[in-house]
Amino acid sequence: MKKLLAILIASSALLASCKNEAKEKEAATQNTSAVQNTTAQEERMFSTPEAEDYKNFMEALVYEYKTAAETKNSAAMEKLSRLTGELAQKSEAAIKSLSGEELSKLQKFIEEKNEEIEAIKASVGK
After folding, report:
1. What is the pLDDT of residues 24-33, one digit of tens each?
2. Is 48 exposed, middle or buried (0-12, 13-18, 19+ CB in 10 A)?
3. Secondary structure class of 48 (helix, strand, coil)
4. pTM attached to this predicted model
5. For residue 98, which phi and psi values (nearest 5 degrees)?
6. 46 neighbors 102 (Cβ within 8 angstroms)
7. pLDDT tens profile 13-53
8. What is the DSSP string of 61-109?
9. 22 neighbors 71 (Cβ within 8 angstroms)
């Protein structure tokens, strides 16, 4: 009987500690989710999906341009030149979707990316 009582006490203590671990894991998961959500919101530069789409497309094009220019990959450069029409459409949609301060932020973003492209041209041309 004493052994059974000892086993029951030990079992209940074990269950209690498992519940605490489960609560701690859940709390940690919630904290991680909150951090990820905050990070995702911080990464968003604009409030509209059109502007975000343009930003992401432009960043990808600049990255591809840099890679193609550094490796002197003419096929990749040709592909990029074909994507400029799509970039123009996305730019137009982004501009139409924004106003005020966000439109100024988009203009600044475009200027920064243009400067980045000019810097890539200059460094490759050396």
Report:
1. 555 555 554 5
2. middle
3. coil
4. 0.63
5. -115, 160
6. yes
7. 444 444 444 455 555 555 545 545 444 445 788 999 999 99
8. HHHHHHHHHHHT-HHHHHHHHHTHHHHHHHHHHHHHH--HHHHHHHHHH
9. no
